[in-house]
Specification:
Number of strands: 5
Strand content: 35-45%
Oligomer: single chain
CATH class: Alpha Beta
Length: 72
Amino acid sequence: MHFDYKGFHIDCRARHDDDGHYVAQAKLTRAATASTPAEIHQSGDIDSFVDESDAMTCARTWAIEWIDENWD
């Protein structure tokens, strides 16, 4: 799942692990501007779910909350 939010491009993923669960992950990319360099933030493993859509929802929620807490 890809979407944009407050100047970030967000890539949400659900990694399938060896136990058959889906692990939520998110990658946030903010493009460079004239005054700031490009930035990339990786969530790492957020949480594990039986259902892939639950993992994707978790990654999306994490990304939005992280941006809201760390950027204006």
